[in-house]
Design goal:
The chain contains 2 helices and 11 strands. The chain is mainly beta. It has a single domain, classed as 2-Layer Sandwich (Gyrase A, domain 2). The strands form 2 sheets. Strands 1-2-8-11-10-9 form a 6-stranded antiparallel sheet. The longest helix has 17 residues, at 143-159.
Amino acid sequence: MADALLADEPVVRDGIAIAWTPPAVRYSLRTRVPSGLPRLLASARFADGHALALGPDEWLLILPDGAQPPTIAPLHALTDIGHRNVGLTVAGDRAAALIQCGCALDLSLATFPPGKVTRTLYDGVEIVLWRTGEAEFRIETWRSFAAYLHAALALAADDL
């Protein structure tokens, strides 16, 4: 990650890896006609990236770095939030246990399977939590909270 405020090196502990996601384009999408978009609290491939359904008329679009905004009709609002958000991956056999150190959600596979997404809190920081695989999560957060969130995850990993 090319941000001076954020550590470049991944944190690797027994059974856990915490790393910054590659640069991406992010949009907040609001529409009342969700044609081709995933249902509430789910994710799906969309416009060469992914759409995460956060509310009944709200999606977070995560696209490859340099991608142009998708054409969506009818559109209510599409806002570039790439300057605001950053992403982390938490992967490994103990990834769910690590996230549960600061988040009260049940992250068992039966309750929170791959593809599920939600907006929640980790240690008081608002995050978007997306389970991308059986033992992998992606966390999106505001850039201003990113260094704190990274440090909180690393500290919790030390204590697991």
